[in-house]
Amino acid sequence: MDDNLYAPPRSRVADFAPSGSVSLYSPRQIYTAAFLSGPFAGACFLSRNFHFFKGWRSWLKVVGVSLAWLALTLMVWSAAWILTARLLPNLLPK
Fold first, then answer.
1. What's the sign of the alpha-carbon dihedral 65, 66, 70, 73?
2. How far is CA 24 from the centre of its chain?
C-alpha cells in the first residue's frame, strides 16, 4: 500500500469529470464584451465561466449581450447629460 499523499492518482481524472452540454466563453469573447460595453459585461461572462466550468460559448450571444449593455450604458449617459443640461445649465460648456 502506497501512503504517499503527494503522488498523482492512478486513474484518469477525466473519468470523474461530469459530462454535459455546458460550455465556457473564451478569453477573446470576454475581452470583446468588455471592450464593446464596459467591464460589467465582461464580468458577467466571467461569472458565467466560473459557474459552469466547461467548454466554449456562442459569439452571437457575446456580441448580443455586449451591444445590449452598450445601449443601456448610452441611455444612462444620455439621460444624465440631458438632466444635467436642464437642471444645471451653467455647468455645461456652450
1. positive
2. 10
